[in-house]
Design goal:
With about 60 residues, this protein is mainly α. The protein is built from one helix and no strands. The model has no long low-confidence stretch (mean pLDDT about 80).
Amino acid sequence: MTTAPAAAKPCPICGKPAAEPRYRPFCSGRCADVDLNRWLSGVYKVETDEAADGEATDGA
């Protein structure tokens, strides 16, 4: 049984079609690198209620 290919979604960075399968969901290595830099520099972050490493907590 084969599945139909999913509709090509645009690159989340620049909006161009993601043509190269090896860079998906991005259109190029450049856009993949831009996304990685955003994660590493803290532009993207996942909010939690936990204290960051090294921060004191309001407990005992």
